[in-house]
Design goal:
nine-stranded mixed sheet; 23% strand; two-stranded antiparallel sheet; 6 helices; alpha/beta
Amino acid sequence: MNFVRAGRYIVLTLAVAVAAGAGAESQPAKPATHPLSLDQLTVAGCSFPNFTFEAALRKALELGFAGVEIAVFPEKETTYGETYPWVVVERLSAEEREHLRALVKRFPRVSTHLPFGPEMRPIASDPAIREVSRRELYRALDDSGFWRASVANIHVMSEPGVLYAAARPELVSLYRELGNHAQRLGLRLAIETTRPYGMAEYFDLITAIDHPHVGGTLDTGHIGFFRPELAVEGAARQTLPAPAAIMISSPNLCPGSATNFSTFTSMTCGAWTGVSTSCRVPES
């Protein structure tokens, strides 16, 4: 992996394996590596804290990114007290919608990040809380469709203190419902590697949902949550069906700033084996 300086930002380029053949049953052949360039990477708009939404888009274009991940949730602060660039379509005037969508269209690849945080409780026991959270998720999916996103990222949204076995049926039902809505909008839902459960439960959830428009997001920043499970080299691997999308993120600190900078790349994969996979990078 190589670091490229771009102004005050550090951009990480990744070497990605090229698929030797999708759906191979046996041990795959050693894949060739394909170094990624900026025009193959998608940058999260949240990498530009304290920028306006439009300013973040323009900076991403200026830096040479061909893809952008849009935060389709209301204003939210980072861990460091900074503000994410964000956008909610219903809060824009007709003129702003037209202007910003034209700017977003300059990116060949567009993805979104749906609302997250302790206020998002779509499987809460309180019906009113469930309704508010689900309505916000559907709104964000609709906004993703407005921006013509191909992938919408979402967290594992369980309830605090609820064991996976108890939450599993409702989580599966929730993501299937959201997957149906994503399918109607022509996009795919990608569940990030997030807490509160372990890797085995995460793999089980993606597999159990079994929806053509629901897959996984491999976020290496979040993989840190599972470090104890991944500490053993050559640990047993689990195979998932082809995910809707794999998003690889690698957070790095910007020079002279406490800002968490992440770069993302979208890939389509024939199969996902554990947390390492042979992928084909989409052609520009």
